[in-house]
Amino acid sequence: MNAMTEGYVTPDGRQIGPVLMEMKNITLRFGGVVAIKDISFDIREGEIRAIIGPNGAGKSSMLNVISGFYVPSEGEVWFRGQKRGPMKPYEVARLGIARTFQNIALFDGMSVLDNIMTGRLTMMKSGLLSQALWFGSAEREENENRAKVEKIIDFLEIQNIRKTPVGRLPYGLKKRVELARALAAEPKILLLDEPMAGMNVEEKEDMCRFILDVNDEFGTTIALIEHDMGVVMDLSDRVVVMDYGKKIGDGTPDEVRNNPDVINAYLGVAHE
Amino acid sequence: MPEQLLYAMEVTLNGLMAGVMYSLVALGFVLIFKASGIFNYAQGVLALFAALTLVGLQNGQIPFAHLINAALGTNLHSFGWKLPVLVAIALTALVMVGLAILIEKLVLKHLVNQAPIILFMATIGLAYFLEGLGDVMWGADIKKLDVGLPQGISETVESVTDSIFGYGFFIDNLDIVATVVAVLLVASLTIFSQYSKQGRALRAVADDHQAALSVGISLRFIWVLVWSIAGFVALVAGIMWGTKSGVQFSLSLIALKALPVLMLGGFTSIPGAIVGGLIIGVGEKLFEFSVGPMIGGATENWFAYMLALIFLVFRPQGLFGEKIIERV
Ligand SMILES: Nc1ncnc2c1ncn2[C@@H]1O[C@H](COP(=O)(O)OP(=O)(O)OP(=O)(O)O)[C@@H](O)[C@H]1O
Ligand SMILES: [Mg+2]
Predict the structure, then answer these.
(1) Which residues form a coiled coil (chain A) (predicted)?
(2) What is the pairing mode between strands A48-52 and A238-243?
(3) Is B134 within 8 Å of B151 (Cβ atoms)?
(4) Does A179 lie in the same domain as A192?
(5) Of A90, A211, B58, B256, which residue is least crowded by CB atoms under 10 Å?
(6) Residue B244 is inside which H or E element, if any?
(7) Euclidean distance between CA atoms B96 and B87, whole angstroms
(8) Model confidence pLDDT, tens digit, residues A50-60
């Protein structure tokens, strides 16, 4: 019996599974800048894992390494017990790792519905030729995917904007559409880069609720970056704390909150 | 009906059909520009290359015959067979797909994330390379392209209009065919882009590369796909123009006719390419018909550019292009 392969139950009764993804000694350099310095941590199945830290700590860089947008200078990424070779972002996406971006990356010219449909591209099988020769199969597949997407639209309460071009939406709704598109891929891991940044209190509460619901209803593993400490403490099972590219804390919200290094980094004063 | 009006109608019809030919070329530009932000200088040469390949395959010409003869002292010219038109067209389409794969592997792949001007320069290089390759493969002589398209004045149109107006319109059969083909082409491209999985991926890539990657779209696959489609559109344009005026170097200059169309229609809009082409086709012919005789004719050489310039001043984004808003 070992927690690595078996998982455990948290004090408040949440079932956490075995390790799903493991980052081993990741280092990432941009010329002279070291964005990530020798960081290791893991993400377990079914948990909500937060990455926090001051501006420029390297949080987004870490998410980019996980999603294949950055190639680590050193270190290994393990997924489902296997070492992941060098992969392009689209290959990572096809493994079942979906993400959102800190600066929102949507297809502005396409409708909300079409944007979310792109999330299902990895799920669609009909090839070019079969679509051309036998429209029926492609049509059936399209309808099935449409049905799934409509569910997500209901789930995130964006029915009334589904035909709106995304470029016209306000910021808070764009963030929600981006989440919807990531969800449409039915990911094993969902990576969220500051899903609540720039939102008002009400929007933040909605987003929090959605994230919890996604984790709860679909059992999706979630890794998220967030600045709002209150939110992080409420949402996450475990927290990685980064500062200047280094990991300075890792544990439950309570453990992290009482970690002197973490307090130091956030308050900028020595804590004796 | 007054005779002048009938003339004008005939000229307009002819203009519309000439416009369709311009649209065909502009379409290739728009496809590549939308998906990758590249202004593909080689689009015209692509049409020439496609037409050369088609003629060569159809006549059973041996590719690189000159080179082989020079190297081995042989005297080869042709395989001695003639391929059926449809087979030759299908093979040429395959060659264009192969070319798209090569262009992606040898050029585009190495220029990811480069500034648009660099990519533009690369396509200039590509244009000259392809022009040379076409010559070496198939020879530099002027070739006649005949895929069995009807040519000459349509007697049906002439007799029908004659019985209605008492004046028979002169419309070229080839122009009618080109119009039908262009309509079919645009319709199938639209259906493809709106309703197929790859079409959606294509629109996604055209909109945002990062976001496209994050939903599992391979940019390289999409690039091969658009260049293949652009190659196919070039083949269609090459067939029409090649049938009209022979397959020779000047065929690649039809690209110059597409430029004003793009300025008018916008670089990113498929309907823009069509409407732009039609406006220029009609404008050009009507202008030559009405004003031409007063200023010594030959206005078709410059009218399109002037129209495009005037347009640029008032609507720089083109007819259908998205509005350019300067963010400060
Ligand atoms: N593509 C890049 N090229 C060069 N330097 C980069 C690149 N991406 C990130 N960096 C650098 O790496 C460091 C970490 O940046 P990162 O965006 O990961 O921080 P972050 O923790 O997400 O910050 P924030 O809270 O502001 O989003 C910064 O010094 C940044 O300038
Ligand atoms: Mg960040």
Answers:
(1) none
(2) parallel
(3) no
(4) no
(5) B256
(6) helix B219-245
(7) 14
(8) 999 999 999 99
Poorest-pLDDT segment among A2-11, A231-240, B26-35: A2-11
Q: What is the pLDDT of residues B292-310, one digit of tens each?
A: 888 887 888 889 999 989 8
Report yes or no on A208 lying in a domain: yes
Residue A154 burial (CB < 10 Å; 0-12/13-18/19+)?
exposed
Max distance between CA atoms of chain A, in angstroms, equals: 73
Cα(A130)–Cα(A153) distance, integer angstroms: 29
Ligand 1 touching residue A97 (CB < 6 A): no
Residues A131 and A179 in one domain: yes
Where does a domain end: A133, A158, A185?
A185
Q: Does A134 touch chain B (CB under 8 A)?
A: no
Average pLDDT across chain A, whole number = 90
Mark whether A199 and A154 lie in a shared domain. no
**Chain B residues inside the 8 Å CB shell of A106:** 208, 211
Q: Which residues in A lie closer than 8 A to residue B214 (C-beta atoms)?
A: 67, 89, 93, 98-99, 101, 105, 182
Q: Select the more confidently predicted residue: A194 or B206.
A: A194
B222 touches chain A (CB under 8 A): no
pTM: 0.84
**CA A242 to ligand 1: nearest atom:** 21
CATH number at residue A82: 3.40.50.300
- Whose C-alpha lies nearest to ligand 1, atom 11? A35
Four-CA torsion A155, A160, A164, A170, nearest 10 degrees:
-80
Residue A25: what are its φ and ψ, rounded to 5°? 45, 55
Predicted confidence band of residue A271 (pLDDT cuts 50, 70, 90): very low
User: Are the C-beta atoms of A224 and A236 separated by less than 8 Å?
Assistant: yes
Give the pLDDT confidence of B58-77 residue by residue, as tens digits. Answer: 999 989 988 888 888 888 88
Query: In whole angstroms, what is the distance from residue A44 CA to residue A237 CA?
Result: 10
Nearest-CA residue for ligand 1 atom 25 is: A55
For chain A, how many structural domains are there in total?
A: 2
Residue nearest to atom 6 of ligand 1 (CA): A30
Q: What is the ipTM of this complex?
A: 0.90
Mean pLDDT, to the nearest integer, of A155-184? Answer: 95
CA of A103 to the centre of ligand 1 (A): 13
A18 pLDDT band, cuts 50/70/90, is very high
- If you measure from the C-alpha of residue B262 to the centroid of ligand 2, how many angstroms do you get, rounded to a whole number? 40
Residues A170 and A195 in one domain: no
> Are A191 and A85 part of one and the same domain?
yes
What tokens appear for B72 in the block?
A: 């081995």
Q: Are residues A139 and A251 located together in one domain of the fold?
A: no
Domains, in order of start, for chain B:
3-314 (1.10.3470)
The answer on pLDDT for A123 being more than 90 is no
pLDDT of residue A132: 60
Considering A185, A209, A225, which residue would you say is the last residue of a domain?
A185
Does ligand 1 have an atom closer than 6 angstroms to the CB of A55? yes
Locate the chain B residue with the closest alpha carbon to A66.
B214
Q: Are residues A177 and A191 in the same domain?
A: no
